[in-house]
């Protein structure tokens, strides 16, 4: 279940042209908890890479063109950021089960689904921005890192200004500051949200409700992960049918939040796709997208739906042609 420009053109070209075999990812931590303690002591941001070193081609491309270059080493040295590499290898026995479980929980906590993903966190582990994919070029990737840091600074500046306010004006200003962050990262700002609730006792801004939804989402995510754990690696027709029925049963819960509903419908769609039932796979993929259409995952599914519609149209066209040819021979 992985933006100011800081680099000149010459430095970006160096990332492309300089030999990479003599470089390795610099000073990479592999334990996020330990890295967070280190970042707290130094009051510095954390950069977390989610990668699949032995199975993910885009991850290998990112490492070759960006992470294993002197340009990236210089970038980290200049920023002083704590760098964390969380690898999710698929080779059996590559990681102890408890380590993999911890990393899967971290990925779930931050909503990481696409690999490679690079998260920018503050020194307390609160996320500000995420970069998914290897980027179009080294220069493009450094630009994205710069924009991520720029967003962090813009947010912090807005928070500082908001804290000069009093009463409901303070709550509104803090809410506007939090709104600068990606929606799926806003709920991590628990201290600021408590401040907003305190300055908005009537909950006109709805943050007390958001806290309740956040707690509910965490519980439902745990339920979802437990369900996925029972189905992992079970791909026989019997297992697919059984897990599909279980997922449909879970979907009967009217209190399920949109991200969980999306994940379950997507799970059912994937099962039908494995059975080559493209019509049903498309049906549930559309239900998944409609469950949370404005989310990052919901928007990503739009292109999946379009691709599956093209596949289905091609299959039907081929079947119609075969039938026509068969009828013509009679």
> How would a textbook summarize the main sheet?
4 strands, mixed
List low-pLDDT spans.
Answer: 1-25
Which fold name fills CATH's third level, the topology of the largest domain? Glutaredoxin
Strand order of the largest sheet: 2-1-3-4
Structural shape: globular
Task: Provide the β-strand percentage band.
Answer: 5-15%
What is the name of the CATH architecture of the largest domain? 3-Layer(aba) Sandwich
- What would you report as the Rg, rounded to the nearest angstrom? 23 Å
Count of helical regions: 14
Distance between the termini: 51 Å
Helix % is: 55-70%
Query: What number of domains?
Result: 3
Strand tally, please? 4
Order of helices and strands: HHEHHEHEEHHHHHHHHH
From the structure above, extract its key features.
alpha+beta; Glutaredoxin; 7% strand; Serine Threonine Protein Phosphatase 5, Tetratricopeptide repeat; 330 residues; 4-stranded mixed β-sheet
In short:
The protein is an alpha+beta fold and 330 residues long. The protein contains 14 helices and four strands.
């Amino acid at each position: 279940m992985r933006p100011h420009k800081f680099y000149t053109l010459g430095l970006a070209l160096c990332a492309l042209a300089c030999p990479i075999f003599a470089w390795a990812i610099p000073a990479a931590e592999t334990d996020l908890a330990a890295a967070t303690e280190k970042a707290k002591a130094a009051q510095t941001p954390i950069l977390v890479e989610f990668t699949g070193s032995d199975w993910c081609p885009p991850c290998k491309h990112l490492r070759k063109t960006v992470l294993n270059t002197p340009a990236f080493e210089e970038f980290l040295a200049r920023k002083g950021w704590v760098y964390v590499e969380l690898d999710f290898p698929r080779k059996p026995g590559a990681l102890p089960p408890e380590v993999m479980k911890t990393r899967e929980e971290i990925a779930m906590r931050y909503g990481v689904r696409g690999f490679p993903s690079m998260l920018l966190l503050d020194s307390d582990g609160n996320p500000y921005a995420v970069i998914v994919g290897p980027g179009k070029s080294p220069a493009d990737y450094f630009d994205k890192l710069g924009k991520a840091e720029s967003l962090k600074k813009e947010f912090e500046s807005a928070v500082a200004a908001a804290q000069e306010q009093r009463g409901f004006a303070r709550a509104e200003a803090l809410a506007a500051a939090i709104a600068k962050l990606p929606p799926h990262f806003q709920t991590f700002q628990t201290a600021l949200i408590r401040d907003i609730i305190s300055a908005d006792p009537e909950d006109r801004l709805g943050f007390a409700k958001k806290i309740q939804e956040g707690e509910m989402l965490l519980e439902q995510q745990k339920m979802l992960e437990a369900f996925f754990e029972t189905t992992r690696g079970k791909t026989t027709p019997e297992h697919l049918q059984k897990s599909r029925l279980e997922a449909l049963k879970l979907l009967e819960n009217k209190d399920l939040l949109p991200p969980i509903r999306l994940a379950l419908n997507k799970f059912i769609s994937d099962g039908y796709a494995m059975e080559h039932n493209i019509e049903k796979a498309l049906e549930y993929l559309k239900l998944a997208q409609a469950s949370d259409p404005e989310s990052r995952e919901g928007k990503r599914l739009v292109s999946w739906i379009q691709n599956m519609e093209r596949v289905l149209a091609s299959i039907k066209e081929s079947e119609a042609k075969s039938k026509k040819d068969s009828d013509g021979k009679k």
